[in-house]
Design goal:
Shape: globular
Low-confidence stretches: none
Number of helices: 11
Largest sheet: 6 strands, mixed
Radius of gyration: 22 Å
Bound molecules: adenosine-5'-diphosphate
CATH superfamily of the largest domain: P-loop containing nucleotide triphosphate hydrolases
Structural class: alpha/beta
Length: about 300
């Protein structure tokens, strides 16, 4: 299975939400990263065929998805961003309703509902109303409806929005478990959501796809740009005026800070450290220190 995104563009009035986006996907987990407003939801809505692009195509094995109709919908599982849940429905009734919309029925649907509830660890809450669910449970039931039809293409828009770290880890592990032999596209502005579960990471900025590569490869641009400095606390303001600070750790008589710099900061006790995805995100999106992101990943 191959999904090809071919020169996609989309505007809302004067706002250009997507600008000439092209890339190819096969099976695996793809993390779509970018700040709010980058165009992630727009791209996802076009891929699931909920939104019409102004130009370009989405092709599945060479066929424009707009030509495929119900055949394409059968392959898709979609978890949208908004939790537009039916609060008075029980979990089972909600899944039954969503299954019916996907053309499922009878014993097959009933068995599958039991299976997906088990997969998302909500069997005990099967008869509970969605209105009483926690944020994490709501996200899990939304994932459950997305995988009801065992889709080959699974699209998740901000699946961990509003969750505490424990629930976030649980959702992340669940996505890894269910992603076998599927194409999974997971949009988020939270680096940790995708850092260790994505085969490839895509970065969108202002509607443009600026990078698409495996985790290690995408971090190559940060080699020699991340340093740990040890200094006195009163030196902190000077450092923060000059460098992007990723983290600050205080110990008894000094502070250890992680900074981004194009060369080793000569005025401090510094040592280079291994870059992480969060460093790259800060490098690309810190408005105080703009960089030319478009030339950065050209190979
Ligand atoms: P993201 O999901 O990365 O936050 P979106 O795709 O939601 O980005 O938005 C991309 C840009 O398009 C933003 O500037 C946003 O304000 C704008 N936008 C999105 N949806 C609409 C809409 N329905 N009408 C007008 N502008 C929109």
């Amino acid at each position: 299975m191959e999904i090809t995104i071919n020169q996609l563009s989309k505007s809302y009035g004067n706002v250009k939400a997507l600008k000439d986006v092209s890339c190819t996907f096969t099976e695996g987990v793809y993390g779509l990263l970018g700040p709010n407003g980058a165009g992630k939801t727009t791209l996802i809505n076009i891929i699931v065929n909920n939104l019409e692009q102004d130009a370009g195509q989405v092709l599945l094995d060479g066929t424009d998805i707009r030509m495929m109709g119900a055949k394409y919908r059968e392959l898709i599982g979609f978890m949208p961003q908004q939790q537009s849940l039916f609060d008075s429905f029980t979990a089972v009734r909600f899944l039954g309703y969503m299954g019916t919309l996907k053309g499922m029925s009878g014993k097959q649907l009933k068995t599958r509902i039991d299976e997906v509830l088990e997969m998302v660890n909500l069997t005990d809450a099967a008869g509970k109303r969605l209105g009483s669910f926690s944020g994490g449970m709501k996200q899990r039931i939304l994932i459950a409806q997305a995988i009801l039809n065992d889709p080959k293409i699974l699209i998740l828009d901000e699946p961990t929005a509003g969750l505490d770290p424990r629930e976030r880890i649980r959702i992340r592990n669940l996505i890894s478990e269910i992603s076998f032999k599927k194409f999974v596209l997971l949009a988020t502005h939270v680096v940790q959501d995708i850092e260790f579960i994505s085969n490839e990471i895509l970065i969108l900025k202002e509607g443009r796809l600026i990078a698409k590569a495996p985790h290690d490869k995408i971090l190559e641009v940060m080699e020699g740009k991340v340093y740990e400095l040890r200094l006195k606390e009163d030196e902190l303001p000077k450092v923060s005026a000059k460098y992007r600070i990723c983290s600050i750790l205080k110990d008894s008589d000094s502070v250890i800070i992680r900074v981004l710099s194009d060369c080793i900061p000569p005025e401090y006790d510094s040592r280079p450290v291994k870059p992480m995805l969060e460093d790259l995100y800060l490098y690309l999106f810190d408005e105080r220190f703009p960089v030319d992101v478009y030339g950065l990943f050209a190979s």
